[in-house]
Design a protein that fits this description.
15% of the residues lie in helices and 32% in strands. The chain is of the alpha+beta class. Keywords: Signal.
Length: 910
Amino acid sequence: MRFMKKSCALVVAFAFLLGLVSVVTPLENVAQAANGEKVLSGNAIGGTLFPEGTAAIATGASYTWLTEGIHATDPALITSDDTGAPDMTDGSNGPDDNTSSTTGSAEGSAAYGTLIYDLKSVYKVSSVKVWTDTDNNSQMRNFEVYASFDGVTYNRVGAADNANPPDSGFALVTLAVKPAVYAQYIKVIMHKDPAKQVMRLGEVAVYGDTLEPMAILSNNYLRSSGYFYNTSLPKIATGASYEWLTDYPFVTDGDLIKYDNDSSKNDTAGGAPDLIDGSSKESDAASTTNSIWGSKGKFGTVVFNLNDVYQIGKIDVWTLASGGNKFMDGYEVLVSTDGVNYTSLGYTPNASSRTANVIVNTPGYGVPGKHAKYVKIIMHNANNSEILTVGEVAIWGWKLYDPALPKKSTPDQVEFTAELKNYSTLYLDWSSYNSVVNNVTKYGVYIETSPFGSTAGLTPKFVAEAKSLEQVGKYLSYFALKPETAYYVAVTPFHSTGGERKDVETLKITTPSVLGGEKVGDIFAINDAPYGGGNYVHHGETEDVFLMNKLRLLRDLGGINKNRWWDHSGAMKTLYGKSGLNFHYFYHGPGFVQSDNNGGAYTFSTYNEPDLAKRDPAAAAAALKANHDSLKAVSSKSLLVEPALAGLDRLKADEGLNWLDALYNSDGQNGALVKTYFDVMDVHPYVKYEYPAVPGLEQGAPEKLLQSFQELKTVMASHGDGEKPIVVTELGWSTYTGGSYLKTVDRSTQRNYLARAYMHAIANGIRTMHWYDFADDGTETNNLEHNLGLIDWNGKPKESYYGYYTLIRVLKDSKYLGTVSNIANPYYGYQFWDENKNKYITSLWDASWKTTSSSSRTAQIATSDPGVTIVGIDGSYKYMAAVSGVVSVPLTGAPVFVYSLAGVTVNAIN
């Protein structure tokens, strides 16, 4: 009873602390603009599609075909485009080839046409239209739209299916972008129907309207002329303020806080805090703030409160680059509407010279549709920089609505975005809704499995009550959904006097499978026992505080999908669910399955390392069959994940792969029956101390996984089970002083091994991998279990936590492409494509390097880019200019990630 009461109190405490879909408009062949929207994309006016008088803005827009990445444009589309009067904006359709463009003939295969429009300035974009041929050999299946401010970081803002009937000519498909987004760059990815021979495109048009100029939101003091922040600049009176963060994971160096707005020094701006005193050119202590000497690799983390929700356009971060030993190498920006749930906008490296000897600006940009009341900026002092000196930070952007307009008696419908983190967790954002003018005090959230046009007779799944976190932030993290299920979602406004507006326009979402696999980030998972177990040392009276701290740090990682635990506590489902995590459970009979499904859990295991426990394989097989039958009788979507082997070796006759062989063979039919007793193969591929080393590498290095995974797949295939998905529910390295089971590693090596292990798993098609584990179980230095965590027993992040954080940020939205060519052991690397960045990500490392090594190798990388951005797993950022088409990248055991517009090749490693 005491546990449950405590857990319920924690749920209340936590609650207190605490793709996109499209609407297709009616099909028409002549462009019809919605009220107030105008053609932005430079389409010729006066022809068939855009008659004289069509509302348009002379933006000077142009487009290019994207030739890189997963959705690279079919070459035939580009060669058939008329460069004199580009086909996609000439104002005309086919069938004349002079006014349309066609892919090469490729029946039975995918092909794409990917356009990037530069509107030359930022506009409010409200719709995108595509005209495409529908004859019996041509079909565009659908198109997606992404938006960007800087042409570097994009956000998917919608998709539209082509519902036109065959042989209806060049027919129009429309995406209404709801809510409308602010953007300069619009990327349109058109997908050919694989069943058709070609995709013939006639025209693409972007619609929207003008915006007010971007204005300062961060309350910077505007000085007289001569300063960068002077009285000539537009500024919105937000009353914004900022604070430095002092909590983990990104603790601000104490001196940065101590010397900010130092009252003993006159900053000539009436005592304005240093970051917003308007003096961006300064180099004196009166208007800058400095970390302590020796702050190598330390952070300065500041959060701006803008007091209302805005669209962030640009961010200026002014820091000192001097003498090579005073240099911020980059920063990360995160945005939030509620101050709890943050979204990362990515990293911005400092491209300035380290010896500029002045305060330099490192500008970053917002992301269309990612709105903010709170803006968190995590500045990183370079790993070889002694001091971080910050001069000014300015946040620019636009109003999303005018709260001073007359109030409405009937509120507008709520437009919102819906983003799936995984099959279970849904993020809803309606932060651009004008709740003041609409006089709305709360919202209802409806999530149904059938379409609906009114909420009459329905019960909301969630109500954002007045003054709640969700009502104020206009943002909801909702769990738990069912996998592979279509949902219809609506958010309704409740007027302060007139009740609920019940008529709705729903968004349809379809959840992915339990194991996902559509993106690399589906692999990220953890082992974290909320209240410990085994060798766990309890924290006594502070155990609840420790749990809440873990949940915050888990949420801050930003991409953990699932946690593995043995209990079925409803309170823990709620606590972890609010942090975006669902559970993988042990199967304890059908009585728990429905409630576990309701909490987001759809994977279950019977055993944990049955080979080590010397379980009889035949008896284990019988137990698996019984559990599989009873599990499926309750929920066909639930998966039995077995058998959690303790290793992938044949060192002992009754363990590892030998035990797995015996499990399969126990049916007397080479596994023909046994393979049907479970849905997913589960292994614990620890790289044991006794394993022979990979040639040239240290014993225990994660590159051994490549051999282990291959041997596992060989065994599975030999029993006719080669197509079964594989997950890893335990893998880790311990920072203990022992060395009997796993090799001893220092904290930096644990971080490096984590990143390398995950990438090897991704390359081998592993669907989910749970790091073991999140927190050290105690403080004994020679105890393996007390040192496996990403955070220590006191809750302080270890280097591996920051490595996991970086790995998730870099790879979670990417797709795996393959291995880097022209390298071999001890050098390793993989290549990925990030659609949101329009860039390749190439990872590289030297597996033979040790933390005690005195020198590193250098990879000579050939690139057609003028330069590349490099993010290190050690937290470093760097922009490196190419010299004669080559960039020299130092390699160590810590992986680096090279961002490039075009694919890179490794010429040599010196």
